[in-house]
Write a structure and sequence with these properties.
By secondary structure, the protein is α/β, with parallel strands linked by helices. The chain folds into 2 domains: 2-166, P-loop containing nucleotide triphosphate hydrolases (Rossmann fold, 3-Layer(aba) Sandwich); 184-291, GMP Synthetase, Chain A, domain 3 (2-Layer Sandwich), CATH 3.30.300.20. 35% of the residues lie in helices and 23% in strands. It has 9 helices and 9 strands. The chain has helices at 16-24, 67-81, 98-109, 126-139, 156-166, 184-197, 238-242, 247-261, 285-291; strands spanning 2-10, 42-48, 51-57, 85-91, 114-119, 145-147, 209-218, 223-232, 268-277. The strands form 2 sheets. The chain has a 6-stranded mixed beta sheet with strand order 2-3-1-4-5-6, with helices on both faces. Strands 7-8-9 form a 3-stranded mixed beta sheet. Helix 6 (184-197) packs antiparallel against helix 8 (247-261). The radius of gyration is 20 Å and the shape is globular.
């Protein structure tokens, strides 16, 4: 039996979270058109007759001196040291640049096998596909180079074939029916953050973080009670999250409620959402330490 840990790396919006969700067949990572949606290492688990692969969806690698971006860089780099293999995703709709070269260099220097994938192949022109594949072959001359579409679920089986071929022999790390190792509070906070981001634009999604302040389960009554805070960076941003007449926060609660219910089948749910401000949280070491977890 094969068993391996696989870090999924690439630039922001390369499709890493979508690929992990597609492979596991479950929603492990939240997705959004907004770059750098993923902030933590998020693990998705795939098991079949060949063995088990544990995928780590890493934050998109973005070169920046901002504290929050530096934290995400560190998170990605640390994951390379902890993995048996790397799955490198190239967004074929964007030309490789300095960030791409940096990530490729980190992958080559990791000392572990790399599977390189040109993602979004279903929407690429012939020229874009040719250029993307040429870049990957030059960057990773000794690695398998594939084209796929995480969103359309095309070429994903071929990715798994290569990963299992390169994976070492080993015992399963998780039960065969597990699909993630995220703790419950984190999963819920990520669902709420995703639904909050869907109603925002431009810079606003980056100033949001969500914390679960209370989570209680009444086993006798089969009832779950959750109180969560949607935090902004400035007081004036709270109104944008709430929306005119409270319409946006109502939408966030309704959409979050629907998805969180799936985590607690057979139980009723009370979801209490509050909007708060934590001034300058993106520069606060204490707050960032709470948000970023391994």
């Amino acid at each position: 039996m094969k068993a391996a840990t696989v870090s999924v790396i690439g630039r922001p919006s390369a499709g890493k979270s979508t690929l992990v969700n597609t492979i596991t067949g479950m929603k492990v990572s939240i997705t959004s058109p907004v770059p750098q949606t993923t902030r933590n290492k998020i693990r998705g688990i795939y098991t079949d007759s060949r063995g088990q692969l544990v995928f780590t969806d890493t934050p998109g690698f973005h070169i920046s001196e901002k504290e929050i971006n530096r934290r995400m860089q560190e998170m990605t780099i640390s994951s390379l040291k902890d993995s048996d293999m790397l799955l490198y995703l190239l967004d074929g709709k964007r030309s490789p640049g300095k960030e791409e070269e940096t990530i490729a260099s980190l992958a080559r220097e990791s000392g572990v096998p790399v599977v390189a994938v040109l993602n979004k192949a279903d929407i690429l022109s012939g020229k874009e596909k040719e250029e993307g594949m040429a870049y990957l072959r030059a960057a990773f001359p000794s690695s398998p180079v594939l084209a796929a579409s995480a969103k359309a679920d095309e070429g994903v089986d071929e990715i798994l074939i290569e990963l299992f071929r390169l994976a070492p022999e080993g015992e399963m790390m998780y039960d065969e029916d597990a699909y993630t190792d995220q703790d419950l509070s984190f999963r819920i906070s990520e669902i709420i953050r995703e639904k909050t981001m869907e109603g925002l634009s431009e810079e606003m999604p980056h100033v949001i973080f969500v914390e679960i302040e209370d989570l209680e389960y009444d086993e006798k009554e089969k009832h779950v009670w959750i109180r969560a805070a949607i935090n902004t960076e400035r007081e004036g941003q709270k109104g944008i999250v709430v929306g005119r007449g409270g319409e946006n926060i109502k939408r966030i609660r309704k959409e979050s409620f629907k998805e969180i219910r799936r985590i607690f089948p057979g139980s009723s749910l009370t979801l209490d959402l509050r909007v708060k401000s934590v001034p300058g949280w993106r520069k606060s070491k204490r707050t960032l330490d709470r948000i970023f977890r391994n």
